[in-house]
Write a structure and sequence with these properties.
The chain is of the alpha/beta class. It has five helices and ten strands, in the order αβαβαβββββαββαβ. An eight-stranded mixed beta sheet has the order 3-5-6-2-8-1-9-10, with helices on both faces. The chain has a two-stranded antiparallel ribbon with strand order 4-7.
Length: about 210
């Protein structure tokens, strides 16, 4: 396993100016510029680095509702769970029976929590992401930082970008494509989002970028 702690601490420092005034927390999205870019790894290690200096907590929102990979990787089985609704309408919509699904958070270390989507067998046939500014406002009021892990090249996550304080694109150095990155950036900006930077994952020393 590659130790990314030094790079992630530096990235946390670089993104600090995104913080909103008044002591409110931030919402940042890590979004893959292509499939298999390593977005989940970057989001996970960034969350760990940020949690080390957090007081109110860092929440890692795993948008892979089908697999809950971050929760499986970071959280002990059978541990405590916390309601992740924040008392607001959710950013996800499920059909036909949303009442049989919920988003929870599990503790994953000091000041770090990871979301997990739970649903009854056969309860969900369709799932969509949508805007919910009141939800993310409540999140900012309760924690220091929310990290949205949005891997892959799906456009389903794009409705959320305007509710964030910034989107960090994750690109694979071995599959670097200026055209793909530009297209992803344009799609984000068309939805009202702001691209805060690009992480070049698996970069060789001569071509590191963040």
């Amino acid at each position: 396993m590659i130790d990314l702690s030094l790079e992630m601490r530096a990235l946390v420092d670089q993104l600090e100016p995104i913080a909103r005034p008044g002591g409110k927390g931030r919402v940042l999205m890590f979004l893959g510029a292509s499939k298999a870019a390593g977005t989940s790894t970057i989001a996970r290690e960034f969350s760990r680095a940020a949690a080390a200096r957090s007081r109110r907590g860092v929440w890692l929102f795993d948008m892979d509702f089908a697999r809950n990979g971050q929760s499986k990787a970071l959280c002990p089985a059978g541990g405590r769970v916390f309601d992740a609704s924040f008392g607001r309408p959710p950013f996800w919509r499920a059909a036909p029976d949303a009442s049989r699904a919920r988003l929870v958070a599990r503790p994953a270390g000091h000041h770090l929590y990871v979301t997990e989507f739970q649903r009854a067998r056969g309860a969900i046939e369709r799932l969509e992401f949508g805007r919910s500014p009141d939800y993310w406002k409540a999140v900012r009021g309760g924690i220091d930082l929310a990290i949205i892990d949005a891997p892959g090249a799906s456009r389903a996550i794009l409705p959320l970008v305007s509710d964030t304080d910034g989107v960090i694109l994750v690109a694979d150095d071995q599959q670097w494509s200026e055209r793909a990155i530009a297209a992803r950036r344009e799609a984000i900006e068309q939805r009202g989002g702001v691209v805060a930077g690009i992480v070049c994952n698996r970069a060789r020393p001569a071509r590191q970028a963040a």
